[in-house]
Amino acid sequence: MVLTTARRGLLLGSALRRAGFAQTARFTNGVRNNARTLARSNLGVLGSGARGLASYGESTNHRGPKADRGLGGLGGLGSGTIAALAGLATALSLGALSLIQPDTVAQTEGNAPPNPDDLVKKAQVPGPNECAPGGNRAQRCPLGFPYFSRKEVSKHKHAEDRIYVTYKDGVYDVTEFVNMHPGGERILLAAGSAIDPYWAMYQQHSTRQVMEILASLRIGTLYEHEFKELEASISLDDPFANDPPRANLGAVRCQKPYNSETVIELIPDNYITPIPMHYKRHHHPVPQANEADFRLVLAFEDANILQVSTEDLRSRFKKHEFPVTLQCAGNRRQELNKVAPVQGLEWDCGAISTAVWGGCLLRDVLEFTGFGDESALIERAGVKHICFEGLDKPYDASIPIDKALSKFGDVLVAYEMNGAPIPREHGGPVRIIVPGHLAARSVKWCERITASKGEGHSGWQRGIAYKGAPAYMRTFDGVDPETLTSVQELPVNSAICLPRPGSTVDVDDGSVTLKGWAWSGGGRNIIRVDVSVDGGKTWQGADLGRGAEQGQNRAWAWTFWEAEVDIPPELRKPGVELDICCRAVDVSMNHQPERPEAVWNLRGIMNNSYHHVAVTLVREEEDNEDA
Amino acid sequence: MVLTTARRGLLLGSALRRAGFAQTARFTNGVRNNARTLARSNLGVLGSGARGLASYGESTNHRGPKADRGLGGLGGLGSGTIAALAGLATALSLGALSLIQPDTVAQTEGNAPPNPDDLVKKAQVPGPNECAPGGNRAQRCPLGFPYFSRKEVSKHKHAEDRIYVTYKDGVYDVTEFVNMHPGGERILLAAGSAIDPYWAMYQQHSTRQVMEILASLRIGTLYEHEFKELEASISLDDPFANDPPRANLGAVRCQKPYNSETVIELIPDNYITPIPMHYKRHHHPVPQANEADFRLVLAFEDANILQVSTEDLRSRFKKHEFPVTLQCAGNRRQELNKVAPVQGLEWDCGAISTAVWGGCLLRDVLEFTGFGDESALIERAGVKHICFEGLDKPYDASIPIDKALSKFGDVLVAYEMNGAPIPREHGGPVRIIVPGHLAARSVKWCERITASKGEGHSGWQRGIAYKGAPAYMRTFDGVDPETLTSVQELPVNSAICLPRPGSTVDVDDGSVTLKGWAWSGGGRNIIRVDVSVDGGKTWQGADLGRGAEQGQNRAWAWTFWEAEVDIPPELRKPGVELDICCRAVDVSMNHQPERPEAVWNLRGIMNNSYHHVAVTLVREEEDNEDA
Fold it and tell me: Does the pLDDT of residue B507 top 80, yes or no?
């Protein structure tokens, strides 16, 4: 009834292939060593951070409870252990566990994922009375696996002893899988214990593929009374239960964590996106901060320097307010998926929105903290990055120091969105706004800003999540993410919002009206948008609308465009499919690349190839002949 | 013997087409009006400039003589007239007269251009005794044209009276041609008089095509005694006679003004280009400044604020020194010419070089002048550009204020190149270095820096010379250059230096070693270079060498790369032509566009499509079988 190691390997391989993991695979030793280094250094941060915060008692309390909360689900641990684990949790949160939602969602919407037990029953041909690596056991569960105690499982935390985890009452050997886990070594947080609390948080695991992989790794079953004890001790309350209510206006790409696009066809109507329509991109449950108690800590590496309330931000620093377009690096990922499968949410061209963000300039706050533009400290201390930590641990991100300090960088410590306090959904009470960069750097619910020699530590900064990988890198197996460059400014991009794909155009109109957005990173103004209705054979210029008037090299918001294009006479027949496309050029004279193949990358980010929309010509009947 | 207007028109049309002018054509009224506006405002500048400089006597003298020198060739004018004309000369120097050297040189190298008289003899079938628009004349020259006096010619300065010019003893009606002149209305400087002094300066006119056009416009001949008087009064001394001696190391694209590439195959050997090998791009004769007398004037619009000597620059401001790659916007123009004819010098990929430039920061000088980063003056006065004027009038260029003032912009007022005073050839004693921008903004022999609301006034800033035009703009006819964006930062680019096109590779080697450069504008680091030996079917990453270590967003110098690429087995046959190509990605994740068609523009600038080099596989015989 128990599989041989070889047979387990085969089953795992095929499950992985089905799940599209063959190409994502394992992290290198480089990363693992790095994880260990970080584990040490982060524990250090926690320690000295606590020291540094001693004079700011509140802030220590502020960090404390969150650490508890994050690991509360594990239950029954002494507070000392919790503190140590909190450090470890942060330290190990390197990979991209939360980044594999894509296929997830396709699977979860509609069909509930199967129970791994059923899969085991279906997939496994009972073998002879073989021994799992766990030991030689007479007593076997109804599925044919040997029984384990929680204590036995807890002894298997390291590769040298094999690594076991439990899910419900199943015991799984994940030793080989660790290197193939898209979320990297974060899986080790559960080594020797239950993964259930983590999966309640990262619901992207609830897919058939993941369950198949899990089933292939099964080696045992918890004693029934032990499982009942465990079940009682684990709180599996839905961590997303407290998310804000939503109208679901745009296409929802994932419910938990919540990710939805803006309404693409309505983009041209709203230069400033109404808040309910602004796209949403969460990696975790939406945290809830009490604005009155909220403190933003300013730090230099692990030494805390200052903490400010939102009231301080409002009263002590000059307020700045301007429109900024935020765009997910994965926007337009759908099109890359058509070239070859990529990881991540299947965004159309609506993971982009514009709001008027208000707040104080990060450079003013840094200046006040002693890290101003002219501060020799920056150079002497080798500060190269400003890191932002959100309340949704372990999320963090960082930006280069020059962007943070430049008078022309316009990075905001924002507390207003479209003239009102920032809603929780969008990062209130305090969100960083880094204009011109991928939105992942505009850290929501920001509670800590650190001047640092290195980049932020999370997988969203240092992992593969937002790295520039080449088209020929078809697997991350053996790739050290540190050798890839972190995405900051995004390239020039544009998309057609109207007409929408699949719509029809009256052939007798003789022309098509196109509308869309164009935007480039780094504040680079859009100088031109070209459009074509014959797949790029002939082009004409679009009229640039709002956004074209933005200050030079400070075009933080998109530029709207519109064009009336004549349908070439030879195409004017009902049934003909028009291949409409657009391409933009920015002030640095960078062009969009022609084909998605050239920019394809395994993470499916930064697709800025020409945007195509197919529409069909029809002859519309007159509804009212008298009219 | 004299052509009818219709026949002249036909001859002109065909000559223009041969010269590739059919697509370049005439400037719009917008430009012409603009020229007039500028004429007024520039005269104003001269006037108030002189006032402003009154307290800096030397500087007034400094500007005075140059104005004289520039128009000295006209001879016999009172000094008041000269002053007025100097303003006009600057004002009208809008177009791109010096920018049509390309085919020019191809023609001049080897074959001396023909005399227009010969062309007239050859091309024209003598007609009946027709009349030129010049009048009804009995007496005709041996070529069959009526004779004119200089006084008669001088009455034809405006379109309403027809516009005549003389060249040698020929009289030409250029009324219709003015709008087609690639140099724009600058041709009107010679209206009613001789163009000979101008052509001595702009020797790009010495081509068969230009002579053909000229021949087609001929309407008469100067009386012999009048021509002799004129000849005696015109100084046609070679204005380039005083150019520095040169080694002609790289491909010379034009002798007068001098334009030459660096030695492409030697690029990979020299991260810092040795000065004799640095590419040279001149628009005029190389001016000679006496360093001891040299003064750099700092101004706000037309009010002079400060003048400094090179000694002041050295002693009063902190010295900064770093490698900067300068690249002509027209680099790699050759490839665009293969798509469709473009204007400009036919650069291969060697109009790029790197030197260590030393000097003080422009921002420090501006700060000292009262236009610092924090100066409210900048905002209050609406300053948006910093303009640089060179000694080679009427050359000027400008950059956006944020580039000039940013701590991270690193714009230099340079006085050293590779550790020594800047040679005259490269802009000494004082040259502006604008890292990350097209080299045309790094104004040589800079004598005036102006904080201004508008861009620089010359054709190289406001004209079509360095504007971002779309691929579908096949003529500048009817295009107002002010509607096109001035190029500043250049897009990501790369090229293969080795092997060189047309070289051979030993098929038995099984692989090819590629070397080249990559660079992007705006200090954007090169994060990757991909190479292919099968025309882009398969790619691999190149190793990044020197330059990859540059500071984040301050990669002002190129990045060298190298790759050893296996030749695909199916191509390993003698006689096979390998299509080797490369493409780079910068830190803002901008990619090079795949095909030159997508970036083609009439001016032939900013070609950053994939760079291709064709080499042939051969089986090399063993030279020495014992070896």
Answer: yes
